Amino acid sequence: MEYEELMQLLDEILALLQSKNFREIKVKLNELKPQDTALLLEELPEKDMPLVFRLLSKENAAETFVEMSYDSQEMLLNIFSDAELKAVFDEMFVDDTVDIIEEMPANVVKRIIKQSDAETRKQINEILKYPKDSAGTIMTVEYVSLRKHWTVKECFDRIRKIAVDKETIYSCYVTDDKRKLIGKVTVKDLLLHDYDTPISEFMETDVICAETTDDKEFVAQQMSKYDLSALPVVDGENRIVGIVTYDDILDVIEQEATEDITKMAAVTPSTDTYMEQSVWQIWKNRIPWLLILMISATFTGLIINTFETRLNSLSPLLFACIPMLMDTGGNAGSQASVTVIRGLALDEIRPRDVLKVLWKEIRVSVLLAACLSVACFAKLYLLDGLAFGFDYKWYICLVVSIALFVTVVIAKIVGCLMPILAKVCKLDPAVVASPFITTIVDALSLMIFCLISTSVLPPFLS
Amino acid sequence: MEYEELMQLLDEILALLQSKNFREIKVKLNELKPQDTALLLEELPEKDMPLVFRLLSKENAAETFVEMSYDSQEMLLNIFSDAELKAVFDEMFVDDTVDIIEEMPANVVKRIIKQSDAETRKQINEILKYPKDSAGTIMTVEYVSLRKHWTVKECFDRIRKIAVDKETIYSCYVTDDKRKLIGKVTVKDLLLHDYDTPISEFMETDVICAETTDDKEFVAQQMSKYDLSALPVVDGENRIVGIVTYDDILDVIEQEATEDITKMAAVTPSTDTYMEQSVWQIWKNRIPWLLILMISATFTGLIINTFETRLNSLSPLLFACIPMLMDTGGNAGSQASVTVIRGLALDEIRPRDVLKVLWKEIRVSVLLAACLSVACFAKLYLLDGLAFGFDYKWYICLVVSIALFVTVVIAKIVGCLMPILAKVCKLDPAVVASPFITTIVDALSLMIFCLISTSVLPPFLS
Questions:
Q1: Distance from the CA of A346 to the CA of which of A53, B9, B153, B276 falls in 20 to 30 A?
Q2: How far is Cα of residue A207 from the mean position of the Cα atoms in its chain?
């Protein structure tokens, strides 16, 4: 449903609320997909939202609740009676319950746990024990397990019996007496074989799986690489404990990309969306980086202060070229670093490719630097010099162009090596990205410029 | 399979090649998943690769071929006999064939088309007609369609009969006599109902679908939002022409994120990976942006040249603060812009939220600016002044701090507004990101600094 349609529906519902025509609201709501219902509820005035939520059918209520923001969930949970809370959580898959529990304050968590039955409570506690961002935290414990001596017919009977409560039934896992994972069959396999064939005859035995403690990014990579719609998660003794489904992976892939993008822009990533974050949260995620980067600019200040008098005596026009030099160096560096960081994240570049990458960047950078130097010379001499009337002598233009050449080459080398180095040192390549590389390249390019100017120019001026 | 294991296997296969033990290579290869076989083949010396490829079983050959890089595919196609080519493409899904055709030179395409049967050729031509990056180009034409008067048993019979050739069978689409899409049933639904129930009794009639010309990013958003494993694609008259499956969407989501990241770093995106691109291609994707950005730095040069003499007469130390000011402004701006760009891409921020975003950024920026100004004052006065011995008078520190405050606030405002403005003007928000915003913020911050210095400082110095 388009956003505009949804806003129109919102107006209709607000009107129906005014005229207290709840029956009609109920009809309209139950035609919607839960994702759209959630969006709609979030747009309602805070006082009307719980009222409208209560008009949802029992099953819709749970599905909609899962799709809402944590803030709205908390608000609803605080006004729910125990019975209402139980009704919503009973309809939910355990992995969704855990996601919500992780974001709620202690008193709300207590109430949720109290209303769960013993089995669910045990499952919740198991999942909560897994390390942050691990496969264990995103898996669902509702999956279909089969036995290898069963026939296709027996498997179908089993699936028919338990399908209602399972998130996905299309990939079924074959386990032995000790719950160890020994094979996989898909419903497609089952459909393609006769009813009395034992599944051991055609089950896949080389099953790709993850351990509970594996990083969720690794799980996403495996599923994306092998085009899997579900991946079993096993414990240290190869016993299956849950499965990760493709819809969780879509979220992981989007989150990981967002995290990398955020880090590259020198912001601490957050699991909340921008609109959900408070001003203080945003401030907290941004200020440390800005402070660090500002303080690290001390180097450039020191270099300028050191060379200032000498540069000034050579030509005051030299100062005007500093921002251009530093910006071009920074841009050239982040082109290389961001490309390499993304390549590392997608596993297209590996640390052992470092020499190939370096050799490629050196060749690219020489080509780029040559073009830019010529353009820079022309710009200074023709545009700034002849058109704007500043006195750019040819030897000053030459010195700036040489400095630019060296800066671009060094920026590319620093830009491609730093992320790989970070990866080797088990640091996050995205964190060392643009801003840090910019700071390093700034200092280097300034240094190069000052050294080249002060050593090349004096003979021309004397 | 881990990369290290794969490299070990590679060594084994190279040894087996030496001893011409092809039978053993065959055994080893047919144990692998096609994705790993493809990786392995790419690592082999060019002369051995076709030989090893020919050892693959017929079905494995096609699946492996699909997973290889376009360069390797082209190389193989050039040495394949017509029969070999036909064998590989006959086993392939049409959407994969089209992907390959789009990347191959004309003579290779001609051979592929020539070896296809009439039906496939028609399907290929249909898909090739859809606009670039549209739903039509990523869909598969192999799907299961059912009729609404059929019973569950009839549906299962149908699925059993055709499942082998279909990419996914779990979402089946119900069509009328004119192939119009009227409903959807999943295999799970079928399993949960009795054999003699007509599917019209339980089929979902409100089916989320895309049109062939919709952007693939829109398809990805829909599937991710509604947690769908497949989405039907219809033509202008609501006739189903194909489906998009979740594995295609995983690729789309990763590609879109890579494209956005690449554009933010001022590089023209490419569909090839970094390792696949030649030095010239990389150069071509980077040089225009570096040139544009370098030329646009003319403004900063002009500003410095204009104010130089006056700044120098006030205090030569002022120049040393320019890089810090410009960098901090640039960093502050790209923090805001990148966050907003990602929010827009994930549909978490909409253009109509512009005032909310602006108000949030203004509050955040004032908080950030206050912190940074105080830190900047302290750094200049204590570190650069007292520790390093430069003569930073308190009023110079104050002027720099004030300029920093204004710069940070303006940088944040420009940073959050530009992407939204781009979106409204139907431009790509990612393209206006960091580097362009940095250039604008650079010029503005420099202007602010020069104006504040020259208007505030003179009374103190006279």
A1: B9
A2: 27
What is the Cα–Cα distance from B173 to B183, expressed in whole angstroms?
6
Q: Place domain A297-461 in its CATH homologous superfamily.
A: SLC41 divalent cation transporters, integral membrane domain (1.10.357.20)
* Closest CA of chain B from A279, distance in Å: 6
Tell me what the mean pLDDT of segment A371-392 comes to: 82
pLDDT in tens, A353-373: 899 999 999 999 999 999 999
Q: Check: CB of residue A349 under 8 Å from CB of residue A457.
A: no
Please report residues of B whose CB lies closer than 8 A to that of A246.
Answer: 229, 246, 250
The whole-angstrom separation of Cα B371 and Cα B351 is 30
Give pTM, 2 decimals: 0.78
- Helix, strand, or coil (residue B210): strand
Confidence check: pLDDT of A434 > 70: no
Interface of B with A in 400-429 (CB under 8 A): 408
Instruction: Give one word for B203, left, alpha or beta, with left for phi > 0 and alpha for psi -120 to 50.
Output: beta
Please check whether residue B72 is in contact with residue B41, taking contact to mean a CB–CB distance below 8 angstroms: yes
Q: What are phi and psi of A326, to 5 degrees?
A: -70, -40
- DSSP codes joined into one string, B276-345: TS-HHHHHHHHHHHHHHHHHHTHHHHHHHHHHHHHHHHH-GGGGGGHHHHHHHHHHHHHHHHHHHHHHHH
Token pair 């759209």 is found at A36
pLDDT digits (tens, 9 = 90+) for A136-193: 888 888 889 999 899 999 999 888 888 777 778 889 999 998 889 999 999 999 988 9
Classify A183 as helix, strand or coil: strand
CB of B15 within 8 Å of a chain A CB? The answer is: no
Answer whether B297 touches A (CB < 8 Å). Answer: yes
pLDDT tens digits for range B385-407: 777 777 778 888 899 999 999 99
- Strands of the B181-186 sheet, one edge to the other: B145-146, B171-175, B181-186
Pick the CATH number of B145-253 from 3.10.580.10, 3.10.170.10, 3.30.470.20, 2.40.10.120: 3.10.580.10
> Band of the pLDDT at B197, cuts 50, 70, 90?
very high
Q: So what's the pLDDT on residue B434?
A: 60
> How many interchain CB pairs under 8 A, A with B?
339
